[in-house]
Amino acid sequence: MNKPLILVVEDDVAVRNLITTTLRAHDYRFLTAANGESAVLEASSHNPEIVLLDLGLPDMDGVEVIRRIRSWSNLPIIVLSARSEDTDKIGALDAGADDYLTKPFSVEELLARLRVTQRRLATLQTGMLTSGAVFTNGKLKVDYAAGCAFLDGQELHLTPSEYKLLCLLCKNLGKVLTHTFITQQIWGRSWENDVASLRVFMATLRKKLEKEPGSPQYIQTHIGVGYRMLKVE
Description:
GO terms for molecular function: cis-regulatory region sequence-specific DNA binding; identical protein binding; phosphorelay response regulator activity. This protein has eight helices and twelve strands. The protein is α/β, with parallel strands linked by helices. The strands form three sheets. It has a five-stranded parallel beta sheet with strand order 2-1-3-4-5, sandwiched between helices. β1 (5-9), α1 (13-25) and β2 (29-33) form a beta-alpha-beta unit.
């Protein structure tokens, strides 16, 4: 598996050096940015495949960086932040982040998160979910080979995690998928905090998929258990 180009956005020199030294030791290619404006410029100019983003930047909040990148790109964004409150995590995930790692973190955990993201990228890029197939359910269409989803003929602008979540539900049409199963498939692990993240991703996916989220047509919640993709005639 080819190592992706990673954009490291971190204003703390010591932390940035720790991350880049780790990446270099494991043969990752990387770019760096010390503030939000530089991060957006680097992301738009060099098309990195993954962004590692600190939220506490000197010129703007990292959540604003996420929103700016999300206005034109669905590249995976992993937040690295000292903010550990659930509201901070939910805010970043809701803005479009794909993962959230709280400082201080171990080098091993950072590398593990990168490996999970790499596998997700490889899956999306090669169409391995259902190679060459197109899934249709009512007005929803998912072109696995192209990595795109459409609703009533309009393309849905999904983050990588939202897209993978949608594909997982589509592949298991009519089946109730537990929280544990979904988080294992999406993030390669099942921690209590991931269930909270899953709820955020499911809420943002529903906003894009359901005309009336309060009366879902496609995704049904099984309280305390998980979610199911409904068959739409």
